[in-house]
Amino acid sequence: MPRVTVTRRLRFNAAHRVHNPALSDQENAAIFGKCNNPNWHGHNYILDVSVEGDIDDRTGYVFDLGALKQIVEREIVDKVDHRNFNLDVDFMESVIPTSENIIVAFWRLLNDRVKPARLARLVLWETENNYVEYTGG
Ligand code: NI
Fold it and tell me: Which of 15, 65, 74, 101 is the Cys-Cys partner for 40 at CB 3.0 to 4.6 Å?
């Protein structure tokens, strides 16, 4: 049975400040630069959600991408879109809101929601030039 990976792209906007409260203001500014701006800044994020599985004989699908969109909207987009990662998002509490930490949190929210397929990869674009990728583990 061929196993195929299918991907749905979703978009959201969110604000954050990349800041480690355990460090001094000077250290934060030196490490994070403009991303440490005290009054926040925003990104137009792009999230690619890939699931892998067998092709269903009845539908020809690995996973209904409309259903995947609804799951990702419910589990992630509705919780972060037009929000501030530092202030408004409970699953990011006490976590430095880098894309690295955000994508791991997203994985935990989605991992059990795509059965019988398997969550194969998340890709989170923070800017046109910067993205992070996570495949679990
Ligand atoms: Ni940023």
Answer: 15
